[in-house]
Amino acid sequence: MIETPKIGTQCIWAGEESYLLQGATQVPVVHSVSFGYRDLDDWLAVALGEKEGHIYGRNTNPTVHAFEEKVRQLEGAEAATSAATGMGIISSALFALLSPGQRVVSVKDTYGGTNVIFTEFLPRFQVNVTLCDTTDHEQIEAEIAKGCEVVYLESPTNPTTKVVDLARLAAAGKRVGATVIVDNTFATPVNQRPLTLGADLVLHSATKFLGGHADALGGVICGNKELVQQVYHYREINGATLHPMAAYLLLRGMKTLHLRVRQQNASAMQIAQFLESHPAIERVFYPGLASHSGHVIAQKQMSGFGGMMSFMLKENSLDAVRRFLPRLRLAHAAANLGAVETIVGPPATTSHVECTAEERAAMGIPESLIRYSTGIEDVEDLLADLAQALAIF
Ligand SMILES: *Cc1c(COP(=O)(O)O)cnc(C)c1O
């Protein structure tokens, strides 16, 4: 490995060297559940973590390790561990790092599933949860300053792409000794590196952009050794382990992460501009637009604005969405994002399906909002497809 490889080189090469077998150029999918030892001392050394190796598949696995290693290097972290899904790693992190009587400060616009952990599960274990207005940085800072063990952030958020100032809030967390966690799923390490902005842990739903092909679920978290070890320890016991086959698919997908994300950045910008000037569109939420409330912060902390946007139809009803969505030919209407294909869906059926219509309204999610995950199709075709579909209005 050259000393300071750029991100595209890392996407291809990082983390794979140590597991290539007998001249294979690709990481093998190791399905074996257990790993045998003839030498008891050897076995013991691996079990005690004094020597590298694997014992049992719920704990660690070579293919899974190669995936963790690739993400670790892309995020510039000391350590990484994974889980079967994004929610697997998010819940593992929160339950590993919080105890009864402690406090977590977060924002109202976290991913729907994360929000359920905050509103339903953590309170059952007497963890105090404070969810702030996502764009009110003074309020978030003030709540953090009252003292907390964890600050949990996400930027850009799902689905309205709100942007939080990661460096500013990480600094606030640091002042009270809190562990700062950032969900970097929407940005990917190609566009945003939270650890360089002061976060302690950065996590992903690898199901989305990292894998990029909508064919494998996964979650991953990176940061310093001690914190990652705590999350790993919880995950090895709760058993939400990433499957080796999924790890392989994620590894393969990640080899084109930089190419995909660069294309998605460029196409999304063009599409956002097109939609913003379209008479049937009320509003476009994309951090790359000057009209976006978080544009200045996004410019500061992101090197690209990503492939995710959402937009609101002028006719603000679920019925308008019902008529519009089936007209799109080059988009899956599905509950996923970050794939090579363009994917659309109303938050009512995807990210915030767990919320009631009233809760969605309170979160500023209008009924005609459509989340648009830009694929890597030719942008001219995506623009034409949107234009023909919007012609009904
Ligand atoms: C999808 C998603 C998650 C959850 O990931 P799963 O792999 O579906 O469990 C968490 N955070 C964000 C931002 C997401 O988009």
Describe what this molecule looks like in 3D:
The chain is α/β, with parallel strands linked by helices and 393 residues long. The chain has two domains: 7-254, Aspartate Aminotransferase, domain 2; 257-390, Aspartate Aminotransferase, domain 1 (Alpha-Beta Complex). Helices cover 39% and strands 14% of the residues. It has helices at residues 7-13, 40-47, 62-75, 86-97, 112-124, 137-145, 166-175, 188-191, 225-238, 244-254, 257-276, 295-301, 318-324, 357-362, 379-390, and strands spanning 79-83, 103-107, 128-132, 150-154, 179-183, 201-205, 219-223, 281-285, 308-313, 332-333, 343-345, 369-373. Helix 3 (62-75) packs parallel to helix 10 (244-254), helix 4 (86-97) crosses helix 9 (225-238) and helix 6 runs parallel beside helix 7 (166-175). The mean pLDDT is 95. The structure holds pyridoxal-5'-phosphate. Pyridoxal-5'-phosphate binds next to helix 4.
CATH fold node name of the largest domain: Aspartate Aminotransferase, domain 2
Average of the residue pLDDT scores: 95
* Helix-strand pattern: HHHEHEHEHEHEHEEHHHEHEHEEHEH
Instruction: Tell me the fraction of residues in β-strands, as a range.
Output: 5-15%
- Can you summarize the main beta sheet? 7 strands, mixed
Poorly predicted residue ranges: none
- Helix percent reads 25-40%
What is the name of the CATH architecture of the largest domain? 3-Layer(aba) Sandwich
Look at the structure and give the CATH class of the largest domain: Alpha Beta
Instruction: For the record, give the distance between the C-alpha atoms at the N and C termini, rounded to a whole number.
Output: 55 Å
Spatial arrangement of strands, main beta sheet? 1-7-6-5-4-2-3
Number of helices, counting only DSSP H or I runs of 4 residues or more:
15
Number of strands: 12
Let me know the CATH homologous superfamily of the largest domain. Answer: Type I PLP-dependent aspartate aminotransferase-like (Major domain)
User: Per the principal axes of the C-alpha atoms, what is the gross shape?
Assistant: globular
